[in-house]
Amino acid sequence: MNKTAYAAPCGLDCFHCEYFEKNISEETIKMLIKHLGMKRSEAPCKGCRFEKGCKYFDNKCETQDCVRSKKLQFCFECNEFPCRFLQPCADGAEKYSHNMKIYNLCRMKAVGVNKWAEEEALLIRKRYFKGKFVSGSGVKLPE
């Protein structure tokens, strides 16, 4: 799989998402059917670039529309990066990966999208959801 094709313009790693078609569990499919009224075949996500936005939030994504209108692949390529579309927010931070966007985009810019996708994205996601904040030291994974 070409992971860079499944990296969202905003910096999210769709290829590691629990809703992504290669990762989705039967339990998650049942939850989506129950709570969102989806058909079984509609539940797995192909990634926001292929879905033309997030299929779980009405497929509306102003960030993706902005990147597309500027003929860019990722937000970090924009002269206005970072902008309001990437503003971190505490609401939902414990369950959604939206606050990882800027860090991911900065790492993509620093090391390249391919290297980020292959070597860093999963560790960043693990640190975000399972790590402990250590003031002045960043995030540490439990040992």
Estimate nothing, just give the exact number of structural domains.
Answer: 1
End-to-end C-alpha gap: 31 Å
Which oligomeric form is depicted?
Answer: single chain
Strand order of the main beta sheet, please?
Answer: 1-2
Secondary structure: number of strands: 2
Q: What does the overall shape look like?
A: globular
By secondary-structure content and strand pairing, the structural class works out as mainly alpha
Percent of residues in beta strands: under 5%
Descriptive report:
The protein is 36% helix and 4% strand. The chain is mostly helical. The protein has one domain (3-140). A two-stranded antiparallel sheet has the order 1-2. β1 and β2 form a beta hairpin. α4 (101-111) runs antiparallel to α5. The longest helix has 18 residues, at 113-130.
Present the secondary structure layout.
Elements: H1 26-36, H2 48-51, H3 62-69, H4 101-111, H5 113-130, E1 132-134, E2 138-140
Antiparallel strand pairs: 1-2
Record keyword descriptors for this entry.
4% strand; 5 helices; 2 strands; 143 residues; mainly alpha
